[in-house]
Amino acid sequence: MSRRPAGALAGIAIVFLFFAAPGGAVAGRPGPADALEVPRPAAPMRDVVWGAPGAAAARISATASSQRYAVGDGTEATIEVAVTAACAMNCTDADPQQIADLVGTFVHGPEVSLVVVQLDTPYQLAFECGFGAEACYFPGENRIVLSGNEEVDEDGADRDFVLAHEYGHHVAQHRDLPAPFPSAVDWGTERWASVEGVCSGRRHGRFFPGDEGDHYFEDPGEAFAEAFAHNRFPEAAVRWRWLSELAPDAESLRAIQEDTLSPWRARTTFVLSGRVPARGEGAAVEFLPTPLDGTVTLRPVGLHRRGYELALRSRAGRLLRSFRPRPTARKQLDFTVCGQSRLRLEIRSRSPRPTPYRLQIQRP
Q1: ∠132-61-213 over CA atoms, to 5°?
Q2: CA triplet 218, 223, 224: central angle to 5 degrees?
Q3: Which of 79, 250, 255, 328 is the 20 to 30 A CA-CA neighbour of 280?
Q4: Distance CA 45, CA 48 (A)
Q5: Where are the domains of the chain?
Q6: Which residues contact 16 (CB under 8 A, 6 or more apart)?
Q7: Which residues face 343 on adjacent strands?
Q8: Are 127 and 60 in contact (CB under 8 A)?
Q9: How far apart are CA 185 and CA 350, in angstroms?
Q10: DSSP state of 43
Q11: Predicted confidence (pLDDT) per residue in 277-328, tens digit
Q12: CA distance 23 to 4
């Protein structure tokens, strides 16, 4: 997993020399100071997802006082809001209850009680999130760092919109994806990623999950968070900078709602049964709907000992994977669905007589 060189700090490398070296980052996820040598992105970034805070960021966070506030969503849910000492003195819009009330209006699940929103001065924000970033998210701490001042950027995004974007990262951090895909914070949540064709886009070199350097605006994890914000603020005239094919529409916004309220948990299992024609007389054919991307497993649980062959084909008939069980080999077929909405399964017998079959199917 590539994670996450943002390039946002290139302009303040000298200033960072006044601070201690950054603390260790989570494997694969750099801390803010690790990005000093990465070029500044061509366009302003909405935010950065960091692995772990550096020493400077940790010192800033240590000055914050925090308290839990009700989100006002009709439940007893609360979030933690922290305000740095400097922000408490100098920020113009650092009302913790106002922040909590806004978070309560986002579509959310139980992950809401885990989030911490920290309000910084713009100067502190530059050190914690990076020069040019409007906010950042630390997945390992469930922490959003946001400005304590109300501002509107050149795309038309105000602070409420930016906070919604960050909360989209928080939702993704607490959602699972099926094998073989990486984390949802890089990829986007399962239904959304399937609707948007993230797997296919990654295979064809159009999308770059987890890459917030030169490919910030081709990163589906960032596009998911931005779409999450548009879901909350559908009337906001905020410019869409990401790839047009990832722009939110009715189907992808519906997927965001479903992924947030009814997260994907695990693959479902069912059994297909029937009879295979005798050898040379054709194949038993089944059509498998595969609306979600991820690994599909076919495991025979009752086929004749004389043998059989399985083949998965696309809707157009192209062979995708074939499988002939052998006594010393694995007795299942695995295939990664990557944009195929339906698979054609063919079962051929190697017996001179018709043969009953039972197949256990697992799919996302």
Answers
A1: 30
A2: 140
A3: 328
A4: 8
A5: 10-261, 268-363
A6: 9, 33, 36, 56, 127
A7: 288
A8: yes
A9: 46
A10: S
A11: 988 888 899 999 999 999 999 988 865 555 778 999 998 889 999 887 665 5
A12: 16
